[in-house]
Amino acid sequence: MCAREVKAGLNRFTLILAGLIMGSSFASASVLEAVNANDVHRLAQAIAGGHDVDERNGAGQTALLVAVWNNDVEAARLLLEAGADVNAEDSIQDSPYLVAGAHGRLEILKMILEHGADLKSTNHYGGTALIPAAEKGHPEAVSLLIEAGVDVNHINNLGWTALMEAVVLSSGGPIHQDIIRRLLDGGADKTIPDAQGVTALDHAKARGFTQIVRLLQD
Protein backbone atom coordinates (compact mmCIF):
# COMPACT_ATOMS: atom_id res chain seq x y z
CA MET A 1 0.00 0.00 0.00
CA CYS A 2 1.46 3.34 -1.06
CA ALA A 3 1.61 6.43 1.11
CA ARG A 4 -1.23 8.06 -0.88
CA GLU A 5 -3.56 5.11 -0.20
CA VAL A 6 -2.66 5.13 3.50
CA LYS A 7 -3.42 8.86 3.69
CA ALA A 8 -6.74 8.40 1.88
CA GLY A 9 -7.67 5.59 4.25
CA LEU A 10 -6.87 7.74 7.26
CA ASN A 11 -8.96 10.60 5.86
CA ARG A 12 -11.96 8.28 5.38
CA PHE A 13 -11.52 6.96 8.92
CA THR A 14 -11.38 10.51 10.29
CA LEU A 15 -14.62 11.46 8.47
CA ILE A 16 -16.41 8.33 9.70
CA LEU A 17 -15.25 8.94 13.28
CA ALA A 18 -16.35 12.60 13.12
CA GLY A 19 -19.74 11.51 11.80
CA LEU A 20 -20.18 9.05 14.64
CA ILE A 21 -19.26 11.70 17.21
CA MET A 22 -21.62 14.25 15.66
CA GLY A 23 -24.40 11.70 15.45
CA SER A 24 -23.95 10.81 19.11
CA SER A 25 -24.00 14.47 20.10
CA PHE A 26 -27.11 15.04 17.97
CA ALA A 27 -28.95 12.16 19.56
CA SER A 28 -28.03 13.14 23.11
CA ALA A 29 -29.02 16.81 22.78
CA SER A 30 -31.51 17.90 25.43
CA VAL A 31 -34.85 19.51 24.63
CA LEU A 32 -33.53 22.86 25.86
CA GLU A 33 -30.47 22.66 23.61
CA ALA A 34 -32.69 21.79 20.66
CA VAL A 35 -35.05 24.69 21.32
CA ASN A 36 -32.16 27.10 21.76
CA ALA A 37 -30.81 25.91 18.39
CA ASN A 38 -34.25 26.36 16.75
CA ASP A 39 -33.99 22.78 15.53
CA VAL A 40 -37.32 20.93 15.64
CA HIS A 41 -35.76 17.73 14.28
CA ARG A 42 -33.32 17.58 17.18
CA LEU A 43 -36.18 18.45 19.50
CA ALA A 44 -38.29 15.57 18.23
CA GLN A 45 -35.35 13.20 18.72
CA ALA A 46 -34.69 14.52 22.23
CA ILE A 47 -38.33 14.03 23.20
CA ALA A 48 -38.38 10.55 21.68
CA GLY A 49 -35.17 9.80 23.59
CA GLY A 50 -36.90 10.44 26.90
CA HIS A 51 -35.31 13.79 27.79
CA ASP A 52 -37.11 15.98 30.33
CA VAL A 53 -39.59 18.17 28.42
CA ASP A 54 -39.65 20.64 31.30
CA GLU A 55 -35.88 21.06 31.51
CA ARG A 56 -34.97 24.54 32.79
CA ASN A 57 -32.15 26.96 32.06
CA GLY A 58 -30.31 29.15 34.57
CA ALA A 59 -33.20 31.64 34.67
CA GLY A 60 -35.67 28.90 35.52
CA GLN A 61 -37.22 29.01 32.06
CA THR A 62 -38.51 25.71 30.71
CA ALA A 63 -37.91 24.70 27.11
CA LEU A 64 -41.54 25.61 26.36
CA LEU A 65 -41.13 29.08 27.81
CA VAL A 66 -38.04 29.62 25.64
CA ALA A 67 -40.04 28.46 22.62
CA VAL A 68 -42.78 30.95 23.50
CA TRP A 69 -40.30 33.82 23.78
CA ASN A 70 -38.89 32.79 20.39
CA ASN A 71 -42.42 32.49 18.96
CA ASP A 72 -41.35 29.04 17.76
CA VAL A 73 -44.74 27.53 16.97
CA GLU A 74 -43.53 24.09 15.88
CA ALA A 75 -41.25 23.64 18.88
CA ALA A 76 -44.10 24.67 21.17
CA ARG A 77 -46.42 22.20 19.45
CA LEU A 78 -43.99 19.30 19.94
CA LEU A 79 -43.43 20.17 23.60
CA LEU A 80 -47.13 20.56 24.32
CA GLU A 81 -47.92 17.23 22.68
CA ALA A 82 -45.21 15.69 24.87
CA GLY A 83 -46.86 17.06 28.02
CA ALA A 84 -44.85 20.22 28.75
CA ASP A 85 -46.21 22.26 31.68
CA VAL A 86 -47.89 25.43 30.36
CA ASN A 87 -47.98 26.97 33.86
CA ALA A 88 -44.36 26.34 34.93
CA GLU A 89 -43.02 29.66 36.22
CA ASP A 90 -39.46 30.93 35.87
CA SER A 91 -37.52 32.93 38.45
CA ILE A 92 -39.61 36.08 37.80
CA GLN A 93 -43.01 34.34 37.73
CA ASP A 94 -43.36 34.22 33.95
CA SER A 95 -44.93 31.06 32.52
CA PRO A 96 -45.48 29.88 28.94
CA TYR A 97 -49.17 30.79 29.27
CA LEU A 98 -48.57 34.24 30.74
CA VAL A 99 -45.91 35.18 28.19
CA ALA A 100 -47.91 33.87 25.23
CA GLY A 101 -50.88 35.95 26.33
CA ALA A 102 -48.97 39.10 27.25
CA HIS A 103 -46.99 39.20 24.00
CA GLY A 104 -49.74 38.12 21.62
CA ARG A 105 -48.20 34.81 20.52
CA LEU A 106 -51.59 33.82 19.12
CA GLU A 107 -50.88 30.42 17.57
CA ILE A 108 -49.05 29.26 20.65
CA LEU A 109 -51.60 30.84 22.99
CA LYS A 110 -54.43 28.92 21.32
CA MET A 111 -52.57 25.65 21.83
CA ILE A 112 -51.67 26.50 25.41
CA LEU A 113 -55.29 27.29 26.27
CA GLU A 114 -56.14 23.78 25.08
CA HIS A 115 -53.50 22.26 27.36
CA GLY A 116 -54.59 23.33 30.82
CA ALA A 117 -53.62 26.98 31.18
CA ASP A 118 -54.37 28.34 34.65
CA LEU A 119 -56.48 31.38 33.76
CA LYS A 120 -56.18 32.72 37.31
CA SER A 121 -52.37 32.66 37.36
CA THR A 122 -50.65 36.03 37.69
CA ASN A 123 -47.28 37.56 36.86
CA HIS A 124 -44.93 39.35 39.26
CA TYR A 125 -47.13 42.45 39.04
CA GLY A 126 -50.12 40.42 40.18
CA GLY A 127 -51.72 40.72 36.77
CA THR A 128 -53.40 38.10 34.62
CA ALA A 129 -52.29 37.50 31.03
CA LEU A 130 -55.09 39.83 29.88
CA ILE A 131 -53.70 42.97 31.53
CA PRO A 132 -50.32 43.12 29.71
CA ALA A 133 -51.99 41.90 26.49
CA ALA A 134 -54.21 44.99 26.66
CA GLU A 135 -51.34 47.30 27.57
CA LYS A 136 -48.94 45.96 24.92
CA GLY A 137 -51.49 46.28 22.10
CA HIS A 138 -52.60 42.75 21.21
CA PRO A 139 -56.34 42.97 20.42
CA GLU A 140 -56.72 39.39 19.15
CA ALA A 141 -55.06 38.03 22.28
CA VAL A 142 -57.36 40.20 24.40
CA SER A 143 -60.44 38.69 22.74
CA LEU A 144 -59.04 35.16 22.97
CA LEU A 145 -58.33 35.52 26.69
CA ILE A 146 -61.73 37.02 27.43
CA GLU A 147 -63.45 34.22 25.52
CA ALA A 148 -61.36 31.69 27.47
CA GLY A 149 -62.72 33.07 30.72
CA VAL A 150 -60.00 35.33 32.12
CA ASP A 151 -61.44 37.82 34.62
CA VAL A 152 -61.75 41.04 32.65
CA ASN A 153 -61.94 43.14 35.84
CA HIS A 154 -58.99 41.62 37.71
CA ILE A 155 -56.97 44.28 39.53
CA ASN A 156 -53.18 43.93 39.69
CA ASN A 157 -50.76 45.01 42.42
CA LEU A 158 -50.62 48.52 40.95
CA GLY A 159 -54.38 48.85 41.35
CA TRP A 160 -55.05 48.67 37.62
CA THR A 161 -57.43 46.60 35.50
CA ALA A 162 -56.80 45.71 31.86
CA LEU A 163 -59.00 48.64 30.87
CA MET A 164 -57.02 51.02 33.06
CA GLU A 165 -53.69 49.88 31.59
CA ALA A 166 -55.04 50.21 28.04
CA VAL A 167 -55.63 53.89 28.84
CA VAL A 168 -52.80 54.83 31.18
CA LEU A 169 -49.98 52.95 29.41
CA SER A 170 -50.94 53.63 25.81
CA SER A 171 -50.73 56.42 23.27
CA GLY A 172 -54.50 56.37 22.82
CA GLY A 173 -54.23 55.31 19.18
CA PRO A 174 -56.45 53.06 17.03
CA ILE A 175 -55.04 49.76 18.35
CA HIS A 176 -55.80 50.62 21.96
CA GLN A 177 -59.16 52.06 20.99
CA ASP A 178 -59.94 48.66 19.47
CA ILE A 179 -58.73 46.92 22.61
CA ILE A 180 -60.88 49.12 24.83
CA ARG A 181 -63.94 48.31 22.69
CA ARG A 182 -63.21 44.60 23.10
CA LEU A 183 -62.74 44.95 26.84
CA LEU A 184 -66.00 46.88 27.22
CA ASP A 185 -67.83 44.34 25.06
CA GLY A 186 -66.32 41.63 27.27
CA GLY A 187 -67.75 43.15 30.43
CA ALA A 188 -65.02 45.52 31.60
CA ASP A 189 -66.26 47.80 34.38
CA LYS A 190 -65.22 51.34 33.41
CA THR A 191 -66.14 52.69 36.86
CA ILE A 192 -63.34 50.81 38.69
CA PRO A 193 -60.78 53.48 39.70
CA ASP A 194 -57.06 53.12 40.25
CA ALA A 195 -55.45 53.08 43.69
CA GLN A 196 -55.73 56.89 43.83
CA GLY A 197 -59.44 56.86 43.01
CA VAL A 198 -59.00 58.08 39.42
CA THR A 199 -61.15 56.37 36.78
CA ALA A 200 -60.11 55.32 33.27
CA LEU A 201 -62.35 58.08 31.89
CA ASP A 202 -60.58 60.70 34.03
CA HIS A 203 -57.19 59.47 32.79
CA ALA A 204 -58.37 59.53 29.17
CA LYS A 205 -59.62 63.11 29.54
CA ALA A 206 -56.36 64.22 31.19
CA ARG A 207 -54.38 62.73 28.28
CA GLY A 208 -56.58 64.19 25.58
CA PHE A 209 -57.63 60.78 24.24
CA THR A 210 -60.79 62.05 22.55
CA GLN A 211 -61.83 58.78 20.92
CA ILE A 212 -61.28 56.79 24.09
CA VAL A 213 -63.26 59.37 26.09
CA ARG A 214 -66.16 58.82 23.70
CA LEU A 215 -65.90 55.06 24.09
CA LEU A 216 -65.93 55.32 27.87
CA GLN A 217 -68.83 57.78 27.88
CA ASP A 218 -71.09 55.69 25.66
UniProtKB/TrEMBL annotation:
Keywords: ANK repeat, Repeat, Signal. InterPro entries: Ankyrin_rpt, Ankyrin_rpt-contain_sf. ANK repeats lie at residues 59-91, 92-124, 125-157. Residues 1-29 form the signal peptide. It comes from the Bacteria. This is Ankyrin repeat domain-containing protein. The lineage of its organism: Bacteria, Pseudomonadati, Pseudomonadota, Alphaproteobacteria, Hyphomicrobiales.
